[in-house]
Amino acid sequence: MGSNGEEKKDGYDEYQDMSIDEIIDYSRNARHEEIERELEEMKSYIGGFRPRRMLFGEGSGVQSEVQREINNLSDSGRDNNDQGNRMASSSSSTDNVQTSGSSHECEIKHFWSRTGVGMDYERERNLHVSVSVGTEAYKIKILDLAITAMNELVNMATENEPLWHPSINGRVLNCEEYIKQFGRVDAALETMVRKSGMEQQPLQPPNLSCPSHFPALPIAETYTHPLQTEASRETKFLAVHPVHIVELLMNNEKYSAVLSNMVSKAKVLGVLSTQAQGDYNGALQVMVVEFHAPSPLVPNRKCYLARHSRRLNSHVWGVVDVSLESLFPNPLIRYRRRPSGCLIERFRDGLCKVTWVEHCEADNSSVPEACRYFVTSGHAYGAKQWLSTVVRQHERLTHIRVMHDPKLQLSTGEANLLILADQMMRNFWRNLSFSRKNRWMSVPLSDAENINKAIIRFVKEKEGRLPGPALVMAATIRIPASSRRIFYFLQDENNRTKWDILSHGHIVQQTRSISNGCVPGNRVSVLEVKSPGDPDRAVKTLLQESFSTSACSYVTFTPVEASSISMILNGGDSDNMPIAPSGFSIMPDGLTGDEVSLVTIVFQIFDSAASPMCFPAHSVHSMYKLITETAKAITAGVVDPYNMG
Question: String of b and e for 168-202 (b: at least 16 CB within 10 Å)?
């Protein structure tokens, strides 16, 4: 670089005389100065904004944690500054996977790449939405959007032909008629707009570990594929008051818990209504939600939306979601939720007719071929999946409530066992999710592609009630048998030794069973694995829950201490019991009716030597062998009728 007094010539590159390390430090420091200035401006804005938030009632506008989010952004920026060189040097090492029998660890290839800066960008966008929804201008726009969405939902839920065409698998949306009634941007034109937006004003955040004039590392959000339309409608009858369903959807805590088999994340960013506590007529809130499918090979879907509930007349309620991309544009969008939700109509006999509508546009380009039609047909995220979950939870709670009748004498211990099983299912679904928190990676084995794609991830102790670090491996396979046949084969303890490699040569007995639904096989069980030579001593004890809906089935289990189960059944507390769920999700492939099923196999093991970037080779090999042998055993068991027992 020239002397201080020398003027820079045209085309002069100020980096040309610097080393790579100097360029990185120089660019990173310059960028962090800019970030600090922006954060100071945001803090000033928040400080001036605080008195105005009370205009919209208690709990609306900017949340109390906004200031903490800003401080966290500053801290995370400094953390990235300290770790920049490590990020840059490690990015290339994860591209090549090497394993050997004598190696004590495996280098991991990421199932998708994501930088720490991408996480900061996501948090900044959360912050931006949180701040903006509290302003009067945005409040009016969101309210208008929600009212329009509710009107569209009513039409979508009540009209038949020509808007909906009947088909073998339900009703199919007539896109031409939809455009006539509601209008939408042409898909080709929209794709051009998205691409143009990326070219003119790219939203990819800066990569602080690289010089500013070098291309940044790719992140998961960089997609330009056209969005595909998915639409479905489903109707069921339930013996429940409409307000209970409305509360389930509008109360974020209940929504996240009851629908945890599909909801990975749900966070309220702003409340834009002033109703009294428990009054959901006219309630309006802004949320960020993330949904997952029954297979971790299927990417999650995330969006910012407005959720609105309203009593439409004396006996009909409506709850509608609508994406906020029209107010908060993002050319990198992968999922947009068009007006979707449910109408709940109450009848005099106490029954409710629930009509659920799912309508969205999604980028399915990263969905593996084996799961492609399962997703595009609406089986993964469609109305049937959502409504069957609501029906199943209602039946489960009703069944348990009946069993609490003193005449049936459901003991405190059995109630605690149901609570433990419910926690096991939530942990299983958390493990199953392809969320941004779950960093799934391709299994680093040369022969790991013979059952589609096997993937693995590290599980921290704090993610579940675990005694130490653990590994979770999953694979989705196709089996030429109905999902119902596979479900009954897996949940029956008499068949367990046919597919459970670790129980071969042993005796499996069911010592306790609690029914928790109307469908046969919907139950929580305690299983004991015993040695043939000593049938009075349990080698292993398992807690298992199995249940089936019209859309999907699950069989999940976790090893437990026999003494702990005895303590719980005698009325003890189950809060501190470790849970390491493994199991299966079973669903139709969406292409052949129910003649072929997709079965996701998930196994979890403890390994104190595991870390986020170091998977012991012996554990990876053992888990992969366990999955492949289990897949073969299940296929043989359900395809060969003589193996059904």
Answer: eeebebbeeebeeebeeeeeeebeeebeebbeeee
- Which of 39-43, 541-545, 628-632 shows the lowest per-residue confidence on average (mean pLDDT)? 39-43
Residues in contact with 175: Cβ distance below 8 Å, sequence separation at least 6, in sequence order: 229
Mean pLDDT for the stretch of residues 482-507: 94
Distance CA 440, CA 184 (A): 36
Q: Helices 412-432 and 562-569 sit at what angle, rounded to 10 degrees? A: 130
Q: Which residues contact residue 33 at a Cβ distance below 8 angstroms, ignoring those fewer than 6 apart? A: none
Cα 614 to chain centroid distance, Å, stands at: 25
Q: DSSP alpha helices (H): ranges in 3-115?
A: 20-49, 66-93
- Tokens 């979950």 map to which residue? 389
Look-up: residue for tokens 């991309």? 325
Cis previous bond, 162, omega within 30: yes
Helices (H), 133-278: 136-158, 175-182, 187-200, 242-250, 252-258
> CA distances (Å), 443 to each of 599, 611, 617, in order?
18, 15, 11
SS3 content of the chain, % helix, strand, coil (to 5): 40, 25, 35
What does residue 155 show for φ and ψ, rounded to 5 degrees? Answer: -65, -45
d(CA 473, CA 455): 6
pTM metric for this prediction: 0.74
Q: Are 217 and 80 in contact (CB under 8 A)?
A: no
> Is residue 22 pLDDT above 80, yes or no?
no
